[in-house]
Amino acid sequence: MSEVDYADVQGLVRFGYGRLTSASYALVRVKNVAAAKAWLRAASVTSAVEQKPPPKTALNIAFTAPGLEKLGVPESVIAGFSHEFRGGMAQESRSRQLGDVGDNAPSKWFWGGYGREPHAVIMFFGEPDQFDSFVQTTKGSSWSDAFEEMTWLGTSNLDGNEPFSFADGISQPQIDWEQQRRTPCTQLQYTNITALGEFLLGYRNEYGKFTDRPLLEPDATSTDLPSAGEAPAKKDLGRNGTYLVMRQLEQDVRKFWQFLYEQAGGNLADAAQLGAKMVGRTLAGDPLAPTQDEPIPGVDPKSAQQNQFTYESDPAGAHCPFGAHIRRANPRNTDFPEQHLSALRKLIIMLGFGPKRFYDDLTSSVRFHRILRRGREYGSELSPEEALQPGPPNESPRGLHFICLNPNISRQFEFLQNAWIMNTKFSGLTGESDPLLGNRGSLPGCPVTSAFTMPEDGGLRRRVCGLPQFITLRGGAYFFLPSLRALRYFAGAPNG
Ligand code: HEM
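# protoporphyrin IX containing FE complex -> structure
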C-alpha cells in the first residue's frame, strides 16, 4: 500500500472548507491557451496537506473534457478518461437517465448545455474578510487574457442549512485514507468506512480494483507523474485526482413550504413534520429512523445521535418512508429488501455478482454507490414562516450548487441519481420519485410520478398526491479534479 501524498491531492477531497464561509465558483472558457497555461502554472492551488493553523483561503481547479482538449491535451490521453466524462452531462441519452427532461432539460440550462460548456471551474474559498482581496490577487492581471468568464456562481452561508431550512452536510462516508480496509470485503453489515479508491483515482476501490483512468507511456512530458499502482511501468495521470459532478439546483422555497402548509391544513408544525418525512430528517437534522446503541464502523461516536442508524429497525418505513430523500440517496441496509435473502445470496450481490437484471442492480450493495458531497447553497435565507408569504416580483433565486466527488461517475453519482433518486419503482414504490428532486414528468409505463407515500404503524399508509416540481436544474457539467502533478502536466509545466 503506498501512502497518500496529500501534497499532490487538491484540498477539496479531504476538507469541505466549511470554516471558509465565503466561496465562489468561476466557470470559465479558455480565451488564450498560452495565457491560460501560464496562469495555471502560477496558480497556488491548495493541497490536502493539513495545515496548522488552517488556511484562511483556498483555491481548487477542475476541467471538463472540452477544457482539456482546448489546453492541447492529446486526444489519445483524453481517451483514457471515462466515457461519461468525455460525453458530458448534457448528452441526450444521459439526460433521460438522469431525469434532466422537461424544465430540467439541458436546452433550458443557464450554462453547461450544448455549446455552453465551461472549460474549467475555478473554486475560490475564503474567510469573509479576506475573500474579495484573495479573489482579486489570485486572478491577477493575466486572468482576463487567459479566460472568458462565462458565469460567476456565488454562494451563501446559511449556517449549515440548505435553502428549504433543513440541516445539511450531516452524513458523509468516512474515507479509508490509511487503506486499512480489505477489499473486496465480505462484511454484510452496513459500514460507513469506504475504500479510498471510491473517492480518489489510483487506489483500490470497493471491488479491490483500480478504476480506469489514463495511464501514459513514460516520456519527457510525464516524468513528474507517479507510477500506476497496478502497472508500475506506466505513468498515472489520474492518481490523486477524481471526477467532480456539479449541478446548479434551483429551489423554489416558497412553493415547497406553501405546498406542505396546504397539505397540513394550515398548521406549520404539521407542515414541518411532512417536510421531515420527505427529507428523512427533522429540520434540526435528527434522523426519523431510530438510532441504535451498537456503533457503526466509520460513524463518529460524537455524531451518533444523527448518524448511528440503519433502516433495519424501520423495515416498513413507518418512521422514515422508503421514498424519503436520504433513504433513497443512501439506503444503508435496505438494499436487501424484505431481508429474505440468504447470507450466501447477499454475499454474492455484495461482491457485485449475480444475474445482471435491473432489479439486481438496484439491490446491489450501497458501498459501491457512495459519494462525497461538497456543494454549497446560494441565495438569501428564507424561513418557513416567511416562505408562506407571496414573494416580491423578480425575487433572486435560491438553491444548491450541488458538487460531489467520485472516481466512477456512472457507478456512483449516475447510479444514485437514476436507480435511487429518480426511480419511480424504488423499494417497491409506484408512481413516485424523490419528493425533493423529482421532475414529476410522466414516464413510459408510469404516467404519475408525483406521489409520496408514508407508511404508518399497523400497515396503514398516508399518500400525498400532486407534488409540484420544487427543484429545477439550471446547469451542470462533469469535471476532472486533477492531482497537482496532473495539473502541472495539463499546464505544460517543466518536469521536476
Ligand atoms: C437541492 C437539492 C438537494 C437538497 C435540498 C438536498 C437536501 C439534503 C438533506 C437535507 C440531506 C440530509 C442531511 C445530510 O445527511 O447531509 C441530504 C442528504 C443526502 N443527499 Fe441530498 N439534497 C439535494 C440534492 C441531492 C442530490 C442531487 C444528491 C445525489 C445525486 C443527493 C444526495 C444525498 C446524499 C447521498 C445524502 C446523505 C444520505 C445519507 O447518507 O444518509 N442530494 N440531502
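# post-check
Residues 264-475 form one domain.
The longest helix spans residues 128-139.
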